[in-house]
Fold:
Amino acid sequence: MNTIASKVSDIFKANYSSAPHLYYSPGRINFIGEHVDYNDGFVMPAAIDKGIYYAIALNNTNEINFHAVDFDEKLTVNIRDVKKMTGWKNYVLSVVNEFLIKGLEIKGFDCVFGGNIANGAGISSSAAVEGGLAFGINEIFKFGFSRKELALLCQRAEHNFPGVKTGIMDQYANMFGKKANVILLDCRSIEHQYFPLKLEGYEIALINTKVHHSLASSEYNVRRKQCEEGLEILKKELGINSFRDIKSPDELITSKNKMGEKVYDRCKYVVEEIIRTQEAAKLLQQNNLIEFGKLMFETHEGLSKLYEVSCKELDFLVEKAKENKDVIGARMMGGGFGGCTINIVKKESVQGFLAGATAAYKQKFNIEAEVIEVEIEDGTHAINI
Ligand code: GLA
Structure:
């Protein structure tokens, strides 16, 4: 058992009497396919070794006791009093609420959780919090939901109390991650395939800007709305059902005057990114990292200029990556407005690149960027004690 799992388990045992079940619930990276999961696109995430550990056991009462180790905070709620709150409480309570909405009987339980995943870093700590709890509840109450059902339940949980209308990517990667593999998820059919990631001679490096602009969740919902608005117009104009049906961004031009400039730009990005991700999937499966990396840079450009979810800190780090010939691809990752860049870098140049980019970042913004090392891991699972 690793040290965080032991810590969570020890805190549980020090506070509660029964033996807990232990779970690991990962965050994710995403190679390409950003902001298209809620637009019928494809995404290429992978679960990582940064996530949340849970210790859970029934307590024969009607109360749920949560202990969030990373926040050093506790919460006790009666099963009949599960309602919207703030911060981390919203994520766990919303998961419980989704089981209650289904009419399932939840009894009291004790739950300690904590991890090694940075908040607001774009590696989906929220899906890790949701997924671990949903998985644990499903097991201790023997509800028998499949991983796909749990991913969808967690997505609804995120929409409900936290109020962020996310796509399915994060919750899906959390449930379906596979060690050393990338998930190619079709977000229209919600089906996936795996392929092994072969980075021969290269490494993935994440740099956390350490900024998380407050716009993140409100602007996320605005983007979603703008895409819905654009799609409605395109359905009428082009007779299509989904962004997926548009084979080239040129097809959008005739509808440009029917929608505002911003909505047009959002739609253009989405159409380009769906096409790009399909191309990227082929390249990554053929181990053509050089061409794949070029598409990552293009994605960043689109996210920054057309979709407008980047920020000056992310743009700066991607510029630093572009200036280094050994960084073959880089872009912002996740929802945006802060968080991480993902970079593919020649092995022997990783340390030099990270040192140079973080030093330049410190000089420019007076912020110590954080390098996050990740390994690709399995999705949410029980840990043997
Ligand atoms: C967040 C959301 C995901 C996805 C990404 C952007 O991580 O939770 O559903 O939309 O942003 O790709």
Remarks:
- Residues 34-35, 37-38, 124, 166-167, 169-170, 334-335 surround alpha-D-galactopyranose (CB under 6 Å).
- Residues 3-198+378-383 form a domain with the Ribosomal Protein S5; domain 2 fold (CATH 3.30.230.10).
- The mean pLDDT is 96.
- The two ends are 7 Å apart (CA to CA).
